[in-house]
Design goal:
GO terms for molecular function: acyltransferase activity, transferring groups other than amino-acyl groups. This is GCN5-related N-acetyltransferase. InterPro entries: Acyl_CoA_acyltransferase, Bact_Acetyltransf, GNAT_dom. Keywords: Acyltransferase, Transferase. Residues 11-169 form the N-acetyltransferase domain. With 169 residues, the chain is of the alpha+beta class. It has one domain (2-167): Aminopeptidase, CATH 3.40.630. It is built from four helices and eight strands. An eight-stranded mixed sheet has the order 1-2-3-4-5-6-8-7, with helices on both faces. Strand 4 and strand 5 (91-99) form a beta hairpin. Helix 1 (21-31) crosses helix 2. The radius of gyration is 16 Å and the shape is globular.
């Protein structure tokens, strides 16, 4: 367990356990609720394909068993989570990266991400990739700030998304 301090508040970053599955599922529902709306115009909301909102507890438990799942806690409450899946030799996929809405814009996503990068260095990872919306400028800036570069785009999920890559080594 690694402790992170942000403005005199202590957060604990650790590898998740099976007992965290339900709290992770609740976090996903909260954090990805707005991601599923293509545009903010209340008259013209268009739903997009967002598998994070349809994820079952069994899916989370499978990730806990087979992948690296990290959480950031504020006391007993999980406030951020991310998952790292090795998809090819030394190449990992960052997925289900979420920070609880009331904790966003405080540097906590960066904190848990930095701990994930340290974990990947221990695994001798070479690359980290993710898919994310290009329509959300806040997310684009966030991932660019973490050192990711967008390599390609598609509309397979009903919105413009990018394949982002970061070199680890």
């Amino acid at each position: 367990m690694i402790a992170a301090v942000n403005e005199n508040i202590k957060y604990d970053c650790r590898q998740a356990t099976f007992s965290d599955a339900e709290a992770i599922q609740n976090l996903m529902q909260q954090a990805f609720a707005d991601y599923a709306v293509k545009n903010k115009d209340k008259k013209n909301k268009k739903k997009v394909i967002n598998s994070a909102l349809r994820e079952h507890l069994e899916d989370i438990k499978a990730d806990l068993e087979n992948n690296i799942v990290m959480v950031l806690n504020d006391g007993d409450k999980i406030i951020a989570s991310l998952r790292l899946e090795e998809i090819r030799d030394k190449r990992y996929l960052l997925k289900r990266f979420a920070v609880a809405p009331s904790y966003q814009n405080q540097g906590l996503g960066t904190m848990i991400f930095q701990e994930a990068v340290e974990k990947l260095k221990e695994e001798n990872a070479h690359y980290l990739q993710l898919y994310s919306s290009l329509e959300n400028k806040k997310l684009v800036c966030f991932y660019q700030g973490l050192g990711f570069n967008c390599l390609e785009t598609d509309n397979k999920k009903g919105y413009e998304r990018g394949l982002w890559i970061k070199t680890i080594i």
